Amino acid sequence: MRAASGTGAVSPSAGDGSNPHRFTTIAGGTPALQSSQRPLQRPDIESMARNSDRAMTLPIGFAIVKTMQNLLSQTLLVGAGGFVGAGLRFLVSGWVYQFVPNAGFPWGTLVVNVIGSLVLGLLGGLAEVRGVLSATTRLFLFIGVLGGFTTFSTLAFETVTLAAGSQMIRAAANVAAHVIFGLAAAWLGFNLARVL
Q1: pLDDT at 110
Q2: How far apart are CA 186 and CA 191, in angstroms?
Q3: Residues 6+ away with beta carbon under 8 Å from 34
């Protein structure tokens, strides 16, 4: 090392390139140590927060997509069952009206709803007592097939039509028959499931 002229400060020799520290002269001729290493940087809090939010958003997005996929598959399953049930209702009610044409009473709807109540009671009893039906099968059969097979809206419309035609007795009989025979059929089906 050699002393800098006129200041008394010490500076490194020209050939000393391996030393990571250099001396510089400050006011008054006092040598100060200066490091060639980069100073420590403060962490970027905003960047870290953005990365954390992004890491949290990805699992939430995947969960939403998974939920939508499950909902779509369940909806298609119920829709397929409803297609089957509505077709069966059309065939059964049409078959009934072939035997009782111009009866003046909605026998087709009554037969369909009573049969549906019986089957639903039976299958519901088997599912509860025996545990033989999975959740997916219940969706297809209970909500899809039997939901499309039975019809409350047709019952309501036909009853209103009878009442509007001054056939109050038939309208009341229609409602009573659906309630009494429907409940009896559901009760019978449920109890049959217990003894099977």
Answers
A1: 97
A2: 9
A3: 21, 22, 23, 24
